[in-house]
Predict the 3D structure of the following.
Amino acid sequence: MRFLKSMFVLAVLVYGGSYLFDRYGLSAEGSIEKMVELVEEKRLQLESKESAPQQEDIPWEGSLFEWMGKPTAELEEQMGDPDRRDDSPYGYTWWVYTDQASHYLQFAIEEQKIISVYAIGKEVDIEPVSIGDSYTQVSEHFSFTEQVSYQDGLSSYTFHLSPEDLQKRPLAKISDDLYVQAYFDTFTDQLSSIRIMNGDVLLTHRPYQVEYRGSLPEEPELTDQQWTEIEKGMEQQVFDITNIIRHQFEKSLVRWEENVSEVAYGHSKDMAEQDYFSHTSLNGDGLKERLALLDIPYMAAGENIAAQYPDAPSAMHGWLNSEGHRQALLNEDYTHLGVGVYHFHYTQNFIKQLSY
């Protein structure tokens, strides 16, 4: 799978049988005695790790954490029908609950069970932390490290986080099959949103550099019709999360503009099919020319683009932490938004409509 973001290159490192020798400075001619000592040392280290408690002192009482692994019947009983059910490219379905201002929740549903939750908004319950907490406050509850492991049967995986990852979207392992990805707004040093997931979801998204022994999940084969439904869901997610973020910063909410969405979709598709990444199309057209093709009137306009993020929430986080994209995202003048997603290419087109 591919997720080579425009700002982050996903590399997969595979180590062969020589890895043990290289890592510990041993050659193939090293003594058997030294190897025996090494194996015994590693066995003792593993026993020590297995016996160590994994954050047993953390009170996982927040409603968000309690939902992991629960059946959808309980979700419907407590929260009612979702506002939307959005397809994903990973086999699960997103159930979306939002008031489009103060809270937004996406529950990933697979085989009638919750396998991941994404949340943003001041009113979401994510005890023992809260949206808006500082990095220092959050790190007091979560252990953010440069390497995070996942074991799936005989296959093992180690995710390597760069310094930028640790700053913007650190990862914490809570148990053998529970992970927390914290998204930080680096301009305010505050927690902006959070994602809880099991190991399979983490491995499918692969948002970090990964070293592995075994195999990786195969890329899903999707029809054009399936992609169309997935893209519609992603577009609506980008729109909803945009308004949640604008509300947090006390900006006016934007309204959906279908004609502008067509322009945005056309640019996302053109970038994907023509294999480029730019605000300027290969024919030289910019946003001004693309809006003019559909005779869209406006007083001001702005555009955000992103590519190869695994889903809409991750693309939104990338924009929030990029100065130029952030300015468009939080511009008080904009009144309407059109979103276009084609496969894993994302375009936001903001406009300020003419007043009459």
Summary: Residues 1-61 have pLDDT under 50 and may be disordered. The longest helix spans residues 224-248. DSSP finds twelve helices and 15 strands in the chain.
